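Hello forum,

I keep getting stuck at the same step: I have a sequence, I want structure tokens, and every attempt I make locally crashes halfway through. Rather than fight my setup again tonight, could one of you with a working pipeline run this one for me? It's a single chain of 201 residues.
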Amino acid sequence: MIVTGIEVVTKKKSKVELDSQLAFVLYKGELARYCIALGQELEESQYEEIMNEVLLKRAKRYLIHLLTKMDRTTHELKSKLYKGFYPQVVVEKAIAYVASYNYIDDERYAKKYLQAYEGRLSLRQIKWKLQAKGIAKEIIDNLDDMISDKNEHELIQSHIVKRTRGIVNIDRKEIKRLADYLYRKGFESSAIWEALEKYNP
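Reply #2:
Ran it on my machine without issues. Output:
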């Protein structure tokens, strides 16, 4: 493998290109240790050492650091590593390492998220947010069994009370506004109109 490019990322780090492909990011001292310079050949043994002894160890430490601050999804952790220009093979190995110690568990994360936001967000909103965090569809779909219709109904009622506070006459126009607002909040149409039924003139 030939070093075909070295691009400074920060004062301390540089991207290294091998055979015209981005390979990894190393610190200045690591570039010097492995004698990485433009046009120089990088031995296979050196490449393997960089991947496994330098980058993989660094990626594992970084993930553990992130997880000590807060729970994260697999997708979020992968995104963090890719932003740091870690190679895919290193990303997968590092993720497998923290998963093997049960440090990450997307199903557990989804359940905790539901418990934290049930009563504040609609089930649909919770699902949208979990989807944005990269939680698998089958995990998200399983949340349906964990939330009761009663809780959703109570949440809709609490939104209606807040929105109608101070309004003397709730006419058809106001009911339509309420319905649109609740729909944007992620509630099902059937549940919305059931809750608004008593306001119909």
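The longest strand covers residues 21-27. If your local run keeps crashing, start a new thread with the error log.
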